Amino acid sequence: MKIEYTLIKEEKETGARLGKIKTNYGTYDTPMFMPVGTRGTVKSLSPEELKEAGSGIVLANTYHLWLRPGEDIVAHCGGLHKFMNYDGPILTDSGGYQVFSLAKNKKKDITEEGVHFKSHIDGKKLLLTPEKSIEIQNKLDSDIAMSFDECPPASATHEYLKNSLERTIRWAERGKKVHNNPNQALFGIVQGGPYEDLRRYSAEETVKLDFDGYSIGGVANDDESKEDMYKAIEYSTPYLPKDKVRYLMGVGEPVDILEGVERGVDIFDCVLPTRIARHGQAFTRNGKINLNNAKFKEDLKPVEEGCDCYCCKNYSRAYVRHLITVGETFGGRLLSIHNIRFLIRLTEEIRESIKEDRFLDYKKDFMENYQKSKQL
Q1: How many domains does the chain have?
Q2: In what order do the strands lie in the sheet with 26-30?
Q3: Which of 93, 141, 143, 266 is catalytic?
Q4: Of these four, 8, 57, 97, 107, which has the most CB atoms within 10 Å of its CB?
Q5: Contact 5, 19 (CB under 8 A)
Q6: Residue 23 sits in a domain of what CATH number?
Q7: Three-state secondary structure call for residue 270
Q8: Which of 72, 228, 269, 308 is catalytic?
């Protein structure tokens, strides 16, 4: 079966939603944070560790799996679930973000057919089209596939964004026509930058194509301001169906998750928790901390007091700092476990606050504590 979304509650004062996603691998509550397993694994973590952290859906990357090992090999091995040994739901992105970053001459390399680019591995010339992206994802056999969209820079003009999103809508229609995995949901993607008219147009036209869920794209660009990100969300969600999942792509800062939930987003993903972990950084209620700092040298406290993750229940800041500073990979593993659990626990608490009609109070308290720290 394809996924089914049920809206349980929507707060009156905000757009915050409480829901459930029914999948072939169980039913999961939303709002939800999805760990990112780019190449078929969440960096340094086992499936068992992910489950212990409370993970539901995890994300894998179509572009990287297409290049290595190849979608046919994954299909030969029984699809992504068996290949990864993950018995929970999996979402695959379209590969669009990666190939657009590799396309050098935007006017020449991005055509109506698709995107021409060179492989980051061997420089081989490649073409990814909406049809090819869906074909790959069908073979990967994820639970949720993403439409292939154009990923314009945040600095793009209104005119450029309008042309871009119209192409994205045409590509979404092409992809939908060839999608043929009956157990795989397909999501459409809303683009349009920080412009209200474009976001509304993109959302309304994409909804007309009747996807199984909808994503808000173009909000995780390096050159985009927080203000523009929040505008893009609040200009998109009012025009999306209430009975379908809403996914904010590539967002994982705790404050951004709270802002997204307030504006009606259900699921989030980001590589941030494992990326910063490898550099010795950890999320805490009082902001990020950097375990490279000498002040943690003799600190016997856990990374975060009160955290229920494996790292915090068993190891001190002093030990984790030692591992990080001498280059032991176990240090990054421990902080990855903590950071992923932190974001999953954040969404668990958000769900409780929505149930009890106190989301704004929860958000206020969290942000006051989180923004106190200026340690990084």
Answers
A1: 2
A2: 4-10, 17-23, 26-30
A3: 93
A4: 57
A5: yes
A6: 3.20.20.105
A7: strand
A8: 269
Q: Are residues 115 and 174 in the same domain?
A: yes
Nearest C-alpha neighbor of 209 from the set 174, 157, 243: 174
Indicate if 361 belongs to the active site: no
Give CA separation, 266 vs 245, 257, 263, 288, 347, in Å: 6, 10, 10, 24, 10
Do 158 and 303 sit in the same domain of this protein? no
| 173 and 287 co-located in one domain | no
Residues 318-322: contacts with CB under 8 Å, at least 24 apart: 320/291, 321/280, 321/291, 321/292, 321/293, 321/296, 321/297
**Parallel, antiparallel, or unpaired for β 125-128 and 115-118?**
antiparallel
The predicted-structure confidence for 158-212, as pLDDT tens digits, reads as follows: 999 999 999 999 999 999 999 999 999 999 999 999 999 999 999 999 999 999 9
3-class secondary-structure state, position 142: coil
Identify the bridge partners of residue 4 per DSSP, sorted by sequence position.
22
d(CA 345, CA 368): 18
Q: Answer yes or no: do 290 and 170 share one domain.
A: no
Residue 376 C-beta-side C-alpha neighbours within 13 Å? 15
356 in any annotated domain:
yes
Is residue 243 flagged as an active site residue?
A: no
pLDDT band at residue 350 under the 50/70/90 scheme: very high
Domain enclosing residue 248, as ranges: 4-270
Tell me the C-alpha distance between 105 and 86, whole Å: 39
Tell me the C-alpha distance between 229 and 234, whole Å. Answer: 9
Looking at the fold, whether 282 and 263 belong to one and the same domain comes out as no
Q: What is the pLDDT of residues 225-280, one digit of tens each?
A: 999 999 999 999 999 999 999 999 999 999 999 999 999 999 999 999 999 999 99
Whose CA is closest to 250, among 296, 290, 218? Answer: 218
- The pTM (predicted TM-score) of the whole model is 0.96
Tokens at residue 241, please? Answer: 């169906």
Same domain, 263 and 346: no
